[in-house]
Amino acid sequence: MHSPLPNTAGNETRSPFRTRDERNRDRAEKREAVLLAAVRMFNARGFHATSLDDVAASLGISKPTIYHYLGNKEQVLIECVTRGLELLSAAAEEVRATPGDGLTRLRGFLRRYAQVMMDDFGRCVVRTGDEFLSSEGAMLFRARKRRIDQALRALIEEGVADGSIAPVDVRMAAFLLAGGLNWPGRWHDPAGAMSPDFIADALVDLLIRGLAPRGRALDLD
Fold it and tell me: pTM for the complete prediction?
């Protein structure tokens, strides 16, 4: 006589095997951990002074694991700087959709720009020269940086056109603004007393004063 089957009505048996979504999420989390460890080491030691063995050791993994998730050392660096530049591109797109005149939108972008430069991936953009990359990697890096420069110039041009920014040499103004906001990526101490928000506000307020038409009162709150 056969034993009756257990009554499983209302109970769900959870499979011990991960779903595709779970596997993808696990892979993404591990990839992000490797990328973050690498970018922090690049920023602290410099690209040439950092090996993938160092990055792997900091995570307790093997170097082939890094190859599996990100590729070779240059590919890891390109991924790091691309992440920083994508943050800037997203900021430019966001401010273009915000209300206000050109100067107001420019100020919003500059504030976010300064904050990104004090983020791990933004620091990597500032601290990495294209001389560290292959010719193909350097071309890719410069092309992505040009898109940020073009977005900055477009915001300045819009402000000049609507009268919220005084007539300026747009190219020189873009160089000045980017140069001034890149430097915190080199000197800002994440453990220091000044927060990225405080520094961003202070620097952007100083820079914006030089762009506003004479006699215009600025709301810097």
Answer: 0.81
Domain membership flag for residue 59: yes
Has residue 220 been placed in a domain?
A: no
Q: Which pair of tokens denotes residue 184?
A: 């915190």
In a domain, 3, yes or no: no
All residues at 6 or more sequence positions from 126 whose CB lies less than 8 Å from its CB, including other chains:
117, 182, 183, 185, 186
Residues 79 and 172 in one domain: yes
Contact between 156 and 174 under an 8 Å Cβ cutoff? The reply is yes
CB burial readout 44-56, b (16+ within 10 A) else e? eeebeebebeebb
| Across 115-124, average pLDDT | 94
Q: How far is CA 140 from CA 35, 133, 151, 182, in A?
A: 19, 10, 17, 20
**50: phi > 0 → left, psi -120 to 50 → alpha, else beta; which?**
beta
